[in-house]
Amino acid sequence: QGDRDLIGKHLLISAGGTREFLDPVRFIGNPSTGKMGIALAQAAHHRGAKVTLVYAPSTAIESVRAFGVRCIAVETAVEMRQAMLAHFSQADWTIMAAAVADVKPADYSPEKLSKSALPENLLLAPVPDIVAELASLKQPHQRLVGFAAQTGDIVTPAKEKLVRKQLDAIAANPIDQPNSGFGSDTNQAIFLDRHGRQHHIDQPCSKLTMAHQLLDFIHAMPKC
Ligand code: C5P
C-alpha cells in the first residue's frame, strides 16, 4: 500500500446513490452514502492515479475533495450516465461503486404534487444501465469493474452480472452482514474477475483497506 503504483493511470470512479424524482420533493432512492467509492478515490489518489469521481448525493464527499480529487456532482441515473460517458474514453480503469437506480417514476411533475394528487399506484420506467453501456464502448486497454450489493448468496448473482454486463471484474458485496454495506465505515466482499480469479474478504475491514485490495486485484488481472 506504500507504492505509487498507479502513477500514469486515470481512474474514473462513481459513488453514492442516485435519486429518481417524482416531483421536486419526492424521490426513489437507496441508503448508499458514497463511502466505498470515496475510499476508492482516496486510495487511487494516494497511489498516484489521476482520479475523476462522479458522485450522487454522498455524505462523505468533503474528505476526498480535500485531497484534490476532481469531483463531479450528479443526482439522477441519467445525469450520472452523462458524466460517466463524458469521461470514460480518457479512463484506464472505471469502477462503478455507485448504487444506481434500476427504475424511476414514469412521470415527473415539475410542481410539487399535493397529497391528494399523489398516485395510488406509482408507474415505473427503467433507467439506463450505465455500466453495461460503458462495456459496449470499452477499448482493449480499459478495465471496467462493477459492484453487486446482494443479500443471501452473493456469488451467484455477481457472476451473472459480471457476464451479462460484460465487466472485467465485480465486487460482490453482502449488505445483510453486520458492519458491511450501505453507510458502514467497514465492509467485506468477494472479488471475481472474468478469468475466474477470486479474492475473499471474509471479515469486515475499513472501506479504505477494501479499496486498496480491490485496486490490487484489478492491477493483478491478466492483460487479455
Ligand atoms: O443494481 P445492480 O446490482 O445491477 O448493479 C450492479 C452494477 O451495475 C453496479 O456496478 C452498478 O453501479 C451498475 N449499474 C449501472 N446502472 C444501473 C444499475 C446498476 O451502471 N442502472
Task: Describe the model.
This protein starts with 9 loop residues before the first strand and ends in a 5-residue tail after the last helix. The longest helix is centred in the last third of the chain and has 13 residues, at 207-219. By secondary structure, the chain is of the alpha/beta class. It is 27% helix and 29% strand. The chain binds cytidine-5'-monophosphate (C5P). Cytidine-5'-monophosphate binds next to helix 4 and strand 9.
In short, what is this structure?
This protein is of the alpha/beta class and 224 residues long. The protein contains 6 helices and 12 strands.
Biggest sheet features: 8 strands, mixed
Q: How far is the first residue's CA from the last residue's CA?
A: 25 Å
The domain count comes to: 1
CATH fold annotation: Rossmann fold
Strand content: 25-35%
Query: Helices and strands: which structural class?
Result: alpha/beta
The appropriate CATH architecture is: 3-Layer(aba) Sandwich
Helices, strands, pairings?
Elements: E1 10-15, E2 20-23, E3 26-28, H1 35-46, E4 50-55, H2 61-65, E5 70-73, H3 77-88, E6 93-96, E7 103-105, E8 124-126, H4 130-137, E9 143-150, H5 155-164, E10 169-174, E11 186-193, E12 198-206, H6 207-219
Parallel strand pairs: 1-4, 1-6, 4-5, 6-9, 9-10
Antiparallel strand pairs: 2-3, 7-8, 10-11, 11-12
Residues 77, 96, 98, 100, 102, 127, 129-131, 146-149, 161 line the site of cytidine-5'-monophosphate (C5P).
Q: Tags for this entry?
A:
224 residues; alpha/beta; Rossmann fold; two-stranded antiparallel sheet; globular; binds cytidine-5'-monophosphate
